[in-house]
Structure formats: C-alpha cells, structure tokens
Amino acid sequence: MSSTEPSSVPSAPATSQRLAWLPAIAAATTVLLWASAFVAIRHVGAELSPGALSLGRLLVGSVVLGVVMLGRPSPWPARSMWPRLVVCGVLWFGVYNVALNAAERRVDAGTAAMVVNVGPILIALLAGAFLGERFPAALLLGSAVAFAGVVVIGVATSAGSTADTVGVLLCLVAAVAYAVGVVAQKPLLARLPALQVTWLACVIGTVACLPFGPELVRETVAARPSTLGWVVCLGAFPTAVAFTTWAYALSRTSAGRMGATTYLVPPVAILLGWLLLGEVPASLAFAGGALCLVGVALTRRRVRKRSGQARVAASTGSADSAGSADSAAVSSPYDRR
C-alpha cells in the first residue's frame, strides 16, 4: 500500500471529538428517561402503593443491570467503599423512590417538582463541604435561574390545588436523600465503573425495600397487565438505563454541575405529558421551562469558555502545547472537574 494512500482508520482528534460528547448524550438520556418516569408513575400510582412500586421497579432494574454485568466482570469493591455504596443505595434508590411516590399521592406534580428540585442546590452545598468542589459564579447563577424556572412551573401547574404539609415534607425527604446519595456516589466513580456502582446501589436499594414485598405480591396479583408492563418499563429504563447514564456523566464532571442538569426534568416532563397524555400546560409553564433551559446553559458557560481558550493556545503554541490544547479543545461540556 502506498504511503500516500488515505487511511480508513479515523484520526485521533476525530475519535476524541466523538467520545467527548458521550457524557453530554448520557446526561440528556438521563433527563429524558427521568422525565418520562413522571408520566409512567401517573398510570401506576393508582394501583400500586409507594413501597410496592419502588420495590417492583428496583427488582426489575437489579435484574436488568445484573444480566449486563454478567458480561462485564469487574473487581469486587474494597471494604472501604461499602459505606458509601450503602448510603447511595439506601437513600437514593430506596428512600428517594418511596418518599417521592408517597408525596405524589398528596401533592400535585408541579409542587412535587418544585420542592424536590431543592436537591441540586443541596448537592452543590454538600459537594463543596465534603468533596472540596468549588462554587463558580456560573454554577451559582445558573442554579438560581434554573430553580426560579422550577418555581414558575410549580406555580403554573399548582393553580387551584391543595398541597398538604405531609406531602411537602415527603418531597423534602426525597430531595435530601437524592442529594446525599449523589455526594456519596461521586467518589466511588473514580474507582469503580459507572455500571457496577449503579447495579450495586440498585441491589442495596432493593434489599432496603424488601419489607414492602408482601404489598407488592398482593397488589400485583390484582393489578392489570398494563400496570405490570409500566413497572417493567420503569425498572428497565428510568431505573437501570437512566441511573447508569447518570453515573457515567457524573464521573466526568462535578456533582454540582451534574445536579444542575436535572433542572431540565420538570419542563421535559411537562412536554411529555402534553404529547403523551394530552395535558396542555399553562402558558406560565412555558416561561418556567425557558428559565430552566437558560439556567442549565449558564452552569456550562465556564466550560465552553475554557474550550475556546484551548483552541487559541493550540493555534499559537508550540507543537507540544498544541497537542495538549487540542485535547482540551475537544473536551466535553461534562469534563471532569
């Protein structure tokens, strides 16, 4: 073969460019699937109690992830990792699901979304306190704008509703469990694959929910086949797939920035409800959704700026510095911090 013949092997920069956007795609997948869970829970919640629904979807998620793990042998976690795994599994996969399912029986979806989205703020604070993450201005400003959008959505979708105190408290419990679980999960992802962390946490959450086993058996026997189908979908996609893509993206960015991404869940959930359930959102909800989009975009602003600086360095520096700058230039918006 002539040395001048073009190679069919993709260049390293082109491959890096494609791989760099995988974390962003993973985060978008998580947002879409978690938003779809709100639509599914509307159908299932009428027939299954909060604990039974949580155990059902976690059982399905554990089985799906376990089957995938069979083809991906990984070293068993060190003893020092298990406390964090237990905290993540019990709080985020267990307590969060049960509390949120119970809360949505007492408060409307808008109020639930508004209160639970205190979580990303708690994540940023806890990550700063326990993980040493900084509080860049872009993250603080973007989080504030996105949270304002969630509040607007909550007001728009809560008109005429009566949210009781117990329901709001359950949403707060879910938010705290979510935030602590994410902060416990983040250090694990530096030492274990995202898939393995998700599977182990899901299994731990399943074990924590086993007391709801009798309820699950009793209620599934009486449930319609379509309800059971929704439980399987919740376990396979918003649980197994979405929590894995979340962990993958989280391993490549800070907990605070990744938490801010979930501000997109409420507007996407409203959009899916409009498309799939015919629930026409209030006009004010569109404004809230726009604020969420702007806020999340602001949290990524500093990363894009750094990428631009890297491109300048690549074009003006020496060969060695250009190589490292090119790597930074193709880095993902979800680069590790």
From TrEMBL:
PANTHER family (alphabetical): EAMA DOMAIN-CONTAINING PROTEIN, TRANSPORTER, DRUG/METABOLITE EXPORTER FAMILY
Residue ranges of the TM segments: 20-40, 52-70, 82-100, 112-131, 137-159, 166-185, 197-216, 228-249, 269-298
Species the sequence originates in: Actinopolymorpha rutila
Region spans: Disordered: 308-337
Family as reported in the entry's similarity comment: Belongs to the EamA transporter family.
Compositional bias annotation for Low complexity: 312-337
Record's protein name: Drug/metabolite transporter (DMT)-like permease
Residue span, EamA domain: 24-153, 166-299
Keyword annotations from UniProtKB, A to Z: Membrane, Transmembrane, Transmembrane helix
GO cellular component, one term: membrane
Superkingdom of the organism of origin: Bacteria
